[in-house]
Amino acid sequence: MKMSRARILITAAAVVIAMCLAGCGKNGPDPRTLEGTYDSEQSEVTEEFNQEIFSSANVSPSRGEYVLGPGDLIEVKVFEAEKLNATVRVSSNGEISLPLLGEVNIAGKTASEAETMIENSYRETYIKNPHVSIFVQEHYSQRVTVVGEVKNPGTYDYPSRQRLLDAIALAGGLTEKAGRIARVRRLSSAARGSEQTYLVDLNQLVNEGKTELNLQINGGDVIFIPEAGSFYVDGAVRRPGKYQIKDAVSINEALLSAGGMAPYADEDDAYLLRKTDNGERKKIRLDFDETGRTSENLTIQDGDIILVESSFWGKVFHGGGITLGVPGAGVSFRDPAR
Question: Which CATH architecture has domain 46-55+142-225?
Answer without folding.
Answer: Roll (3.10)
